[in-house]
Design goal:
Bound molecules: zinc ion
CATH class: Mainly Alpha
Binding site for Zn(2+): 116, 119, 156, 159
Number of helices: 6
Low-confidence stretches: 1-8
Strand content: 5-15%
Protein name: Fur family zinc uptake transcriptional regulator
InterPro entries: FUR, Fur_C, WH-like_DNA-bd_sf, WH_DNA-bd_sf
Strand order of the largest sheet: 4-3-5
CATH architecture: Orthogonal Bundle
Number of strands: 5
GO cellular component, one term: cytosol
Order of helices and strands: HHHHEEEEHEH
Family: Belongs to the Fur family.
Structural class: alpha+beta
CATH topology: Arc Repressor Mutant, subunit A
Mean pLDDT: 88
Number of domains: 1
Length: 169
């Protein structure tokens, strides 16, 4: 269908600490803008999800927060995830049942993903063209869309080149 991807995540030499910094900055400013509080547990959950471009499962997150002495009772963790999702700061990758930080949280959008079978890195790809086609097609069928999930699997460019580390550390 499409080959468009956010190429910054496909380059092994990219500076991932910059991704994390950027994500946290965006989160702070979006929360301030909407009068929401980026509590300690929300912030740390976001940071942990951003540890890599591999989606993180709720139980992995729970375990990490527990290690760090947070109140990691499941409801606390799920509420934090709910918050981050509704704020658009993370996406849920349905097929992996895991969460991915979003690099474009300031522009609300659907998450359409390219998932690498080898390194499990997930890239978002530009959804706008496809979104429009889907909406139009559904409308011609008289169908009202509730959710859209597009998750394509394959091999990222780093894994095709045989890089050990995959797309991003
Ligand atoms: Zn990165
Ligand atoms: Zn996104
Ligand atoms: Zn890969």
């Amino acid at each position: 269908m499409t080959e468009h991807s956010n190429d910054h995540t496909s380059q092994s030499e990219h500076n991932h600490s910059h991704c994390i910094e950027q994500a946290l900055e965006t989160a702070e400013s979006l929360c301030a803008e909407h009068g929401q509080r980026l509590t300690k547990v929300r912030r740390r959950a976001l940071e942990l999800i951003w540890q890599s471009h591999r989606p993180l499962g709720a139980y992995q997150l729970l375990a990490k927060l527990a290690e760090e002495g947070f109140n990691s009772a499941p409801p606390t963790v799920y509420r934090a995830l709910e918050f981050l999702l509704s704020a658009g700061l993370i996406h849920k990758v349905e097929s992996m049942n895991a969460y991915l930080g979003c690099a474009h949280a300031d522009k609300p959008h659907k998450g359409y993903f390219l998932i690498c079978d080898e390194c499990q890195n997930v890239m978002e790809f530009d959804y706008q063209d496809i979104h429009k086609i889907l909406i139009d097609k559904a409308a011609t069928q008289g169908f009202q869309l509730r959710s859209e999930t597009i998750e394509l699997t394959g091999l990222c460019s780093s894994c095709q080149n045989g890089d050990d580390e995959g797309g991003c550390k």
